[in-house]
Write a structure and sequence with these properties.
two-stranded antiparallel sheet, 14 helices, single chain, 2 strands, 66% helix, binds Phenylacetyl coenzyme A, mainly alpha
């Protein structure tokens, strides 16, 4: 979608680097100009000069984000055939399809940084690239579909609204549409929870159980605490990230706790207290060992998610082959 505008020559163009002293001064000047553009809230576009580390940071974050959207289709896809009504099935189908679309916009945005989609997919399939920890948890009951919409999409929106102002144009623009769709997902998830919470005792128990299982993993979605976050400082200096991991986590908690109370559900954190002086809900300790285990590939569903993804890639090989053959045939005809 964006790659037509990419001028690969401009990306490669480098000054004469025969003299390392000159090259160093030129780099320092370019870096300073680049930072001035960032500070002035100018958008960086694909053909603009950018520091290599800025480019790599974006490729890493955008591709991880894309992989998350694609792997994120699995936990909910698991419930399409078992949705309790036609209305619920239609909404869930559309939601899962939206997540796929988000993955595609994001791969396209990453491609504007001079990296091929095939390469990014290979990194995912080889286990080199990460995807969000949250998608390694199972969806055991229908209430999990409500909890994912309410909490996982809710957390995604909290993180992604500031990304609409990310300094890199193609990522920021992709986020605008993604956020609109995620807002709809969040509402449909909350409506499922509301229906269950107002239903029979058994349904209310299902809703509470889903909240119990998804709450802590959702807080982990925002990434490690600021004190150990490796990339936050540079990403905030470059206005890729506008808020730190802990700031976004706090915003999410403050927005979500009252929603849980409205549902008549209990947030599974005995230490949760409202600090009237600051106006924030203070949470208990997060189990960062669990987070590390899940990110390292040892979560409850990591192996299943990757096996499914690899199988899907294999199953789709004939489609890619056919598309290539068709393009080749058209090229030959035109020649
Ligand atoms: N899971 O230095 P930081 C969605 C890694 S989309 C796994 O703080 P950063 C929609 C991090 O990559 C959900 N790994 O990193 C949906 C880094 O490792 P690396 C995805 C994580 O980048 C809903 C290391 O830890 N959203 O839900 C996680 O500055 C429903 C150190 O961390 C995005 O990707 C994690 N949770 O901040 C779909 C949003 N957290 O790369 C379907 C864009 C951290 O050096 C159904 N991404 N790590 O090997 C971001 O905003 C950032 O990348 C953060 C992490 C905030 C996730």
């Amino acid at each position: 979608m964006y790659t037509q505008a990419l001028n690969a020559q401009a990306l490669d163009a480098e000054p004469d680097r025969a003299d390392p002293g000159v090259a160093k001064v030129e780099d320092a000047v370019r870096l300073q100009r680049f930072q001035e553009r960032i500070d002035a809230e100018e958008r960086i576009e694909p053909n603009d000069w950018m520091p290599e580390l800025y480019r790599r940071t974006l490729v890493r974050q955008i591709s991880q984000h894309a992989h998350s959207e694609i792997i994120g289709m699995q936990p909910e896809g698991n419930w399409i055939t078992r949705a309790p009504s036609l209305r619920r099935k239609a909404a869930l189908l559309a939601k899962v399809q939206d997540e796929c679309g988000h993955g595609l916009y994001l791969y396209a945005a990453a491609e504007t940084l001079g990296v091929a989609r095939e390469e990014l997919v290979d990194q995912l399939l080889s286990g080199k690239a990460k995807y969000s920890s949250i998608f390694n948890y199972p969806t055991l009951t229908w209430a999990d579909i409500g909890a994912i919409g309410w909490l996982v999409d809710g957390a995604a929106i909290m993180n992604q609204i500031p990304l609409c102002r990310c300094s890199y144009g193609p990522y920021a623009r992709a986020m605008i549409r993604v956020c609109k769709e995620e807002s709809f997902h969040q509402r449909q998830g909350y409506e499922i929870m509301l229906t269950l919470a107002r239903g029979t005792d058994e349904q209310k128990e299902m809703a509470q159980d889903a909240l119990n299982r998804w709450w802590w993993p959702c807080l982990m979605m925002f990434g490690p605490p600021d004190t150990v976050s490796q990339h936050s400082d540079s990403s905030m200096r470059w206005k890729i990230k506008r808020f730190s991991n802990d700031e976004l986590r706090q915003k999410f908690i403050d927005a979500t706790v009252p929603q849980a109370h409205y549902l008549g559900l209990t947030v599974p954190d005995p230490a949760l207290t409202f600090d009237a002086a600051s106006g924030h809900w203070r949470h208990g300790p997060i189990d960062w060992d669990e987070f590390k285990q899940v990110v390292a590939g040892n979560g409850p569903c990591n192996a299943e998610r990757m096996a499914r993804r690899r199988q899907t890639e294999e199953d789709g090989a004939w489609v890619r082959e056919a598309a290539r053959a068709y393009a080749e045939k058209n090229r030959a005809k035109a020649a």
